[in-house]
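Changelog note: in this version the structure field was regenerated for every chain. One regenerated record is shown below for reference.
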Amino acid sequence: MLRQVSFFLVLAVCSSVVSAGPYAPAAGEPNSTAIYMDDPNFAAWATGITVQRGYVKIDEPDLGYVSYGSDANALGKAEGDSFGVVSLGDDGSATLTFENPIANGPSYDFAVFENAFDDTFLELAFVEVSSDGSNFFRFDSVSLTQTDTQVGSFGVLDTNDLHNLAGKYRQGYGTPFDLAELKDVNSLLDVSRITHVRIIDVVGCIQDGYARYDSLANKINDPWPTPFATGGFDLDAVAVIHEKTLLADFNGDGIVNFSDYSIFAAAYMSEPGDENWNQECDISQPADNVIDMLDFAWFVDEWLITEQWYGQ
């Protein structure tokens, strides 16, 4: 939600936050995981988006859907201000795509930017990824915010209580995610070539009928209701840290070498339906549904080339 001029905001800022949790602190503090939008390690930004707007107020659907911002506001580099965003609303979502897939490199692989104007007024979202555009898998998340009392429309959160939830950091600073955490979650997910990232607003309401839960089955309490056109998670951008540019890097380790050759050789001269068919080895451009010399020529062109991040 964008900045609202209200005395309730003053009250929220003045309220105290009790007993910090064990997770990373706010941007700029020691041991924070926040990454500034101008960080040179960002290799790319989202290039495509589909948005499903959520309700202005999920328990009053007659109020309709949020409307602030165009989908394109979340494409390209983060702007780091309150206005260049797309608002998702209660339980709204945005699915983003990229020129090249995201790779599972060393440490964090991508980051999500929201537009919170300070370190405590935070609106949160779940993050899911897919390597085929159909099957999505969610990062485990934790919220240790108390659930006895609803955090109000202009209430505050403590970043130390939050883990793996987008929106943890103020505008201009991304919340990073590490694909290694999902490496073995399901055979349908290839963390070496993530093609889609989905951001899903956490409603934030602690009423049983509308509550959303973290991976420990805790209700997630964040500012609610936000009955404005700007309500819910406000997506600024998604940045890529480890970009997969080598099509012949079949095992996703950042270099094309004999390990990849073994994978290619096993699929050579196969077509869809063959027992040894491997679609990832159909790398000639355009792909032609057969693993042959055209693909081998592409493989040779990338032989022993490394990704920019290889060896970090």
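Spot check on this record: The chain has two domains: 1-244, 245-312. The domain at 1-244 is CATH 2.60.120.260 (Jelly Rolls).
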